[in-house]
Amino acid sequence: MRKAFNGRSVSRFIKLRLVLAGALAIHTSLSAARSIDTGRHRVITAEVIMLPAPRTSGTVSVEEALHKRYSVREFRSAPISLKDVSQLLWAAQGITHEDRLRTAPSAGAIYPLELYLVAGDVLNLPAGIYHYLPERHRLAVIRRGDFRADLAAAAMRQEWLKDSAAILVFAAVEQRTKAKYDSRGPGYVRMEVGHAAQNALLQAVALGLGGTPVGAFEEEWTAQVLGLAADEKVLYLVPVGKPPRAK
Ligand SMILES: Cc1cc2nc3c(=O)[nH]c(=O)nc-3n(C[C@H](O)[C@H](O)[C@H](O)COP(=O)(O)O)c2cc1C
């Protein structure tokens, strides 16, 4: 026998309509969400993360950071803060002057470097791949998920990369510098990535963190993990995290 269309089924029917209307509203607002072009990727504005403002003074001198720096390949299983991530990215490629000059020098102030963050264990930042936007000191979400193991595999199976809290990935659009400096361009770009990576390594020391520059990786595989555009080349990886406590 057919069930009577009673009060309970009416309220269920109304609830279902409300759920469907809600789903439609979410779908519409997502499709209407504004997207921005980061210069490399098109991402919806909801996927851009504001970073805490970087500080421009600290308690560790340059001399002390230089003295204490060494390559750290063992990390405590502890998250690093978003503030630390913000500071590391700024140290590597942040804007320092109104005329858009950066923390690291660049031949002809052309800035061919593009900086990515592979986050795994960062407080208040979901695991994922992010693109650093120096002009606005923000992160654009490229991919969600933990890709540290994929990078470790692409880096000639250097398993220790998986234990870092996050990995800075320095890429470059060589053509930017080549357009002005021709055959000297690629050499300049490689010099620049050394400047930027060393900034990040010294900043890590000043924050009580540790890291290692990694040059052993398969270029195409690494670029694939990151989802890079065809004109971008990966040049250097810098895994960072909390070093083991001194014994
Ligand atoms: C261009 C370059 C590439 C490197 N690649 C790797 C690497 O793939 N894996 C690694 O564990 N260390 C790598 N290193 C770190 C060196 O092994 C390390 O700097 C060296 O052993 C000196 O030790 P220190 O950094 O503690 O002073 C690299 C260093 C440089 C400069």
TrEMBL record:
Q: Does the keyword rRNA-binding apply?
A: no
Which SUPFAM superfamilies does the UniProt record give? FMN-dependent nitroreductase-like (SSF55469)
Q: Which domain of life is it from?
A: Bacteria
The family database entries (CDD domains) matched by this protein are listed as:
McbC_SagB-like_oxidoreductase (cd02142)
Which segments constitute the Nitroreductase domain?
68-242
- Keyword Magnesium present in the record's keywords: the answer is no
Annotated signal sequence is 1-32
Q: Which UniProt keywords apply?
A: Signal
| Protein name per UniProt | SagB-type dehydrogenase family enzyme
Species assigned in the record: Methylocaldum szegediense
